[in-house]
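stage 2 :: seqdesign
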């Protein structure tokens, strides 16, 4: 192992920034300390680099600033980062007086924002990230702009001789620069996202900055938590950081006033929280809500008073409306919109009308200047697409101007089951929301929304339990289906909606195939065809003679989907005159039967569609149709952990989504293909994702080389009263005390050291609301467990028990104490998705937990087998050293279909290269079998018994022992 680069990440003035680099990986190369206290020379001399990032106005003292200057002069590195646009939006005030700008001034650095730059839909001003380019410099070591996380950026000025690292393409304005200072080095970046995310570009920055540093020997802590003071205010216990002591009373006053106004407006009786934390941060959030009614808040003390009022209003959205929040999210109208609405309402309640109106005006300005011209937010992707917010804010404001205080009325009308009686297609969650709004105001709002340019599907203004509601919905859908002027895809959706409401069996549907009404025949034939019912084929052939071209196209599509290739050319011809969604449907069906027309009817070939590949720290492949996002795969690059805290390069596919109207058209397959073939992905050794076994995409992922790493099992039990178990002599169970985190992390690392997918636990102070119990005996920690209470449900976060003689008994005593504490906090049920560890399974079953196998699954795939084996070669060497094969010499060839590599073992060292034809051991199998072997999910012997792996010259005792030593079965954490 080379030099361990020690980095002090100072978050003492702003806890909301630099979280990613404070937990940076790989931690066997970079060891970071999350610092929350004042700086001094005695602290800095232990580190190579200090990171100062954020949007705080809390100043550093002259002594602290001088210590940083001396640190750099003597060879240390300084990484400064600030986003002036976020400072102005979230904090307010004079940016020249910000902590980062004042510290930068000591080094000739100034962060600034040109007046002409605009803002985005989040109201952050700055240079758009796609207008920033990387400037070649030895620091980057060939890294491209695609590996640099950025958001809207500000400009940076530096001393004479400073070299530009990033700049705005149009103006050449520096966005990041570097320079020497004394014997040390400085980097200044006009954005904080790079450090918030802790992406791959941080590695060359830290390497370059650390080059001249000579810190003291010795380990550094994972965290230096902030000092803390406590006071009581009106029955609330307030924990605060001394840096914000002068802001405590004002912050509490804002919270109290906004809470009073919201109680009055919405008929609530929520009292002040039992616990409030006042911290140096721009973020205000609910810390916890427990079943006993208690709740806690973390107040960010950095924003100005009107901006803090806004943050409190947004926070109370989660408190007041948590029961219907999911429905709000899915509607696309209210999630982001209501946050803005309640935030500005809080501002007005405290007399900040001008500031609230200014925010509304900025949204409207952006909406009017939106270069992409989006107005129909019903077509704007998914619920989290923030581009919906400006249009939603405008719509909500106009509704309130017309109907008064709308939200309380909406809450009264909101149905317990939002989708009851409403087919999933073509009706959206937005349609359900508009129906609910219509009931609330006593007027049909569907025409009003349509007039605003929003796509809606009217629902009848009837009670959804009534027969009349269902009958009107059917008439509406049948009218669409029978109308040849409608788009064919829209007619198909209407059919699918009617099918959803139809409980008739296939035999009843088949009896309609001889009807004289062609639409009745199509209704039954197309539904039977979905189930590959051969009785539909003759009826579909007859429908090909109908005058209605849309009906002919639907029939041809159904026949080709059933494998009738003779109709493929007919379908290709008919599709040319249809709507875009139908073209994509047809193209996918044609490609599946090998017809050449399918290539002309895919996203990449259609002029109305566009595929963008965005590599900016993350990797995003997205398809747009008519300017609207319809399909997307989002991935990030991060280390993955093999046992022994071995880091391997991986891409994690975090999101694969297709708008409902564009599913089953091959878009996800086409987009995933672009992802796995991207050069940045090809540069990784493995790939990962999470999905569900009941998700149709599960098979798609398997076709791209992913295997099931772990299918999750949920354990749960009711908490019905205090529990008792047999006590253990000499074992004491207690709660958490400051400083316990060091021993807790050491024990967790000891227990999970051989887990796959679990990195090193860090000794950091746990959140105040986490319920923790520790078991001690003979002066040492034997075990600990933690859980989080969310209203009446508790979720275990971890159980770690040392491997001692009475291990099961220690675990039982520990869990018993944890259960009783959770019960006292108002929890009525506790649940956990534990690792597949036999000890934990026995412990939970013995404590009365029930279990169920869920459909949640973690998937893993090999990208480059040789690179992966090279990265885990220290682990392979350690495994051999700990086995009787430590002296084994020879070659092992691993021969999959595409995954092929060779191991040369000599003197306890493992070298990786191409497989050797003369290898002493050859493991031959499918890529799936090789992937499961290397990941430790199935041993070579197990695959051999299942005839999935061929072993040459044979699977004897020695070969089994060697392969078990190299690739044992492991627990997935």
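stage 2 :: out
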């Amino acid at each position: 192992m080379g030099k361990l680069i020690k980095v002090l990440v100072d978050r003492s003035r702003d806890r909301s920034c630099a979280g990613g680099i404070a937990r940076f990986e790989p931690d066997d190369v970079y060891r970071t300390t999350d610092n929350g206290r004042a700086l001094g020379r005695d602290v800095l001399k232990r580190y190579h680099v200090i990171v100062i990032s954020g949007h705080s106005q809390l100043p550093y003292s002259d002594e602290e600033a001088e210590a940083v200057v001396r640190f750099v002069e003597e060879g240390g590195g300084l990484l400064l980062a600030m986003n002036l646009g976020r400072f102005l939006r979230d904090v307010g005030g004079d940016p020249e007086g910000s902590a980062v700008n004042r510290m930068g001034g000591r080094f000739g650095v100034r962060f600034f924002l040109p007046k002409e730059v605009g803002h985005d839909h989040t109201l952050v001003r700055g240079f758009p990230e796609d207008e920033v380019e990387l400037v070649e410099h030895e620091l980057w070591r060939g890294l491209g702009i695609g590996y640099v996380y950025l958001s809207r950026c500000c400009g940076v000025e530096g001393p004479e001789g400073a070299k530009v690292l990033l700049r705005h393409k149009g103006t050449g304005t520096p966005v990041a620069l570097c320079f020497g200072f004394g014997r040390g080095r400085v980097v200044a970046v006009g954005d904080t996202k790079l450090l918030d995310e802790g992406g791959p570009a941080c590695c060359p920055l830290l390497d370059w900055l650390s080059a001249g540093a000579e810190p003291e020997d010795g380990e550094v802590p994972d965290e230096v938590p902030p000092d803390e003071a406590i006071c009581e205010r009106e029955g609330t216990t307030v924990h605060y950081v001394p840096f914000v002591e002068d802001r405590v009373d004002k912050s509490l006053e804002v919270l109290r006033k906004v809470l009073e106004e919201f109680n009055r407006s919405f008929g609530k009786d929520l009292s002040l929280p039992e616990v409030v934390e006042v911290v140096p941060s721009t973020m205000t959030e609910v810390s916890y809500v427990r079943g006993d009614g208690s709740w806690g808040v973390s107040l960010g003390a950095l924003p100005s008073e009107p901006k803090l009022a806004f943050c409190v209003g947004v926070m109370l959205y989660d408190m007041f409306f948590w029961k219907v929040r999911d429905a709000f999210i899915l509607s696309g109208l209210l999630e982001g919109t209501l946050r803005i609405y309640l935030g500005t309402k809080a501002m007005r309640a405290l007399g900040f009308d001008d500031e609230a109106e200014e925010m509304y005006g900025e949204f409207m300005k952006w909406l009017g200047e939106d270069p992409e011209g989006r107005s129909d937010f019903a077509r704007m992707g998914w619920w989290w697409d923030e581009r919906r917010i400006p249009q939603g804010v405008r719509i909500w404001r106009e509704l309130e101007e017309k109907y008064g205080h709308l939200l309380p009325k909406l809450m009264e009308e909101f149905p317990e089951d939002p989708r009851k009686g409403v087919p999933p297609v073509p009706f959206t969650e937005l349609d359900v929301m508009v129906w609910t709004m219509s009931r609330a105001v006593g007027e049909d709002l569907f025409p009003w929304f349509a007039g605003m340019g929003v796509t809606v599907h009217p629902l009848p203004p009837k009670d959804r339990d009534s027969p009349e509601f269902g009958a009107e919905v059917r008439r509406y859908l049948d009218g669409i289906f029978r109308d040849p002027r409608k788009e064919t895809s829209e007619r198909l959706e209407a059919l699918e909606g009617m099918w959803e409401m139809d409980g008739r069996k296939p035999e009843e549907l088949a009896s309609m195939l001889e009807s004289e009404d062609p639409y009745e025949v199509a209704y039954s034939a197309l539904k039977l065809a979905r189930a590959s019912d051969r009785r539909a084929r003759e009826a579909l052939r007859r429908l090909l003679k109908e005058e209605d071209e849309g009906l002919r196209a639907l029939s041809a599509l159904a026949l080709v989907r059933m494998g009738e290739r003779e109709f493929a050319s007919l379908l290709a011809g008919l599709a040319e005159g249809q709507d875009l969604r139908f073209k994509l449907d047809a193209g996918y069906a044609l490609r599946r039967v090998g017809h050449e027309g399918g290539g002309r009817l895919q996203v990449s070939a259609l002029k109305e569609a566009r595929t963008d590949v965005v590599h900016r720290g993350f990797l995003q492949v997205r398809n747009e149709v008519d300017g609207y996002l319809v399909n997307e795969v989002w991935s990030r690059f991060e280390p993955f952990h093999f046992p022994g805290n071995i880091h391997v390069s991986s891409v994690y596919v975090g999101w694969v989504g297709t708008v409902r109207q564009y599913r089953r058209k091959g878009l996800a397959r086409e987009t995933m293909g672009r992802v796995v073939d991207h050069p940045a992905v090809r540069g990784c050794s493995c790939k990962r994702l999470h999905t569900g076994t009941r998700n149709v995409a599960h098979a798609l992922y398997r076709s791209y080389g992913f295997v099931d790493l772990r299918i999750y099992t949920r354990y749960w039990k009711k908490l019905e009263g205090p529990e008792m178990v047999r006590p253990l002599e000499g074992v004491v169970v207690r709660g958490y005390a400051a400083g316990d985190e060091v021993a807790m992390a050491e024990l967790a690392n000891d227990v999970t050291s051989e887990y796959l997918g679990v990195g090193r636990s860090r000794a950091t102070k746990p959140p105040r609301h986490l319920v923790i119990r520790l078991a001690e005996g003979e002066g040492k920690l034997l075990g600990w467990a933690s859980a989080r209470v969310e209203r009446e449900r508790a979720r275990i976060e971890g159980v770690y028990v040392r491997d001692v003689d009475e291990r099961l008994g220690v675990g039982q005593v520990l869990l018993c104490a944890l259960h009783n504490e959770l019960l006292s906090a108002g929890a009525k049920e506790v649940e956990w998705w534990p690792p597949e560890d036999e000890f934990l399974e026995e412990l939970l079953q013995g404590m009365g937990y029930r279990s169920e196998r869920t459909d949640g699954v973690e998937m893993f795939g090999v990208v480059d087998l040789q690179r992966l084996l090279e990265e885990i070669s220290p682990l392979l060497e350690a495994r051999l050293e700990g086995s009787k094969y430590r002296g084994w010499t020879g070659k092992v060839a691993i021969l999959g279909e595409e995954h092929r590599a060779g191991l040369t073992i000599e003197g306890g060292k493992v070298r990786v290269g191409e497989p050797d034809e003369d290898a002493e051991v050859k493991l031959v199998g499918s890529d799936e079998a090789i992937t499961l072997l290397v990941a430790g999910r199935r041993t070579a012997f197990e695959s051999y018994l299942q005839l999935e792996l061929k072993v040459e010259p044979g699977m004897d005792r020695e070969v089994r022992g060697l392969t078990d030593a190299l690739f044992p079965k492991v627990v997935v954490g």
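stage 3 :: structure notes
- The chain has 35 helices and 35 strands.
- The radius of gyration is 31 Å.
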